[in-house]
Amino acid sequence: MDQNRLRHGHQPAVVRGRPGSRADHVAVRSRVRCPRCGFSYRLFRETLGDSMSAQLLDRKVAIITGAASGMGLATAATFLEHGAKVVLADIQQDAGQTAADQLGPAARFRRVDVTDADQLESLVQYAADEFGSLDVLFSNAGAACDLSPVAELAPEGLRRTLALNLDAHAAAHKFALRQFRRQGRAGSIITTASIAALQAGWNGAAYSMAKAAVLALVRQTALESKGTGTRSNAILPGAVLTPMIPPMFGIADADASRFLSRVSAAIGGQTLIGRAGLASDIANAALFLASDLSSWITGADLTVDGGAMAFTKDATVDLITQVACEFASDEVRE
After folding, report:
1. SS3 at position 155
2. How confident is the model at residue 38 (pLDDT cuts 50, 70, 90)?
3. Active-site annotation holds for 126
4. Catalytic residue among 39, 202, 207, 259
5. Are strands 188-192 and 85-90 parallel, antiparallel or unpaired?
6. Mean of pLDDT values over 105-133
7. Which of 35, 84, 37, 38 is nearest to 58 (CA)?
8. What is the per-residue pLDDT for 39?
9. Domain spanning 3-333: which CATH class is it, in words?
10. Integer Cα distance of 209 and 242 in angstroms
11. Could you list the residue ranges that cross the membrane (predicted)?
12. How distant, in Å, are the alpha carbons of 3, 173, 214, 243, 278 from that of 166?
């Protein structure tokens, strides 16, 4: 597998440095660049040496939804680096297939609309048939479908948001649990929630409601898996830079790079770490929860937000909206 050739279509292309061969921690430099909009930033991460890193998910089979871009794609690449076989699921056919092809022979792609429960059931069956079992479900697909405030939220906007950000997760949990029971082997279910589930202002009303309900789903799944060894946990990302942000605020693809640069600077001031989140930050959290390193953790909420929840700050959705308005004003003046 040539991870250095990973390209995502509109997703970031990740070019990694070469890890050292030592078993101790090795710093790895990477550059993340979106070939469509040109936005580029560097990230630095630590990884274990080659002798250990490939073993964290050795021989495990994982499904990742929302895997054609952003956090899902970064997680797919990370899982594969650690020895897993991965089924990437996404509604984006071309981007998903391209990503799977470039990730190598241990990756597969299935086009799935996660709001269709039958397609999710078929996805789980496909993974089990293709690789012999299922060990990890990363139920990650989601989006802010309607940013309306409560007083203006239409029923259809709420329903559409809940279908993608709650109903789909519930169905994915159901079919994964059934597969774990059929195969007589426990698994790990990881679900993407959001810090919007804990504090108002990080996203729209409907999205925040859905993500709060996801936390209840995660705990209920953990309870119902008592004594089986199956674990259920949530990741609560903070403000992570992904390709979905510019379209949410009406920014054209040609302007996405400059817009994301401004968003990154604004978000950095809202975290204790001093930078916006990266897809790799979420991927590393998912790796931990998927691996046996977290074997005594279930029913937990893992907040990955650079410390943003540790202090009071302006509402992020308002902050990005302000940046979008200023950006539009600059365009008019130019």
Report:
1. helix
2. low
3. no
4. 207
5. unpaired
6. 98
7. 84
8. 52
9. alpha beta
10. 21
11. none
12. 32, 11, 6, 22, 24
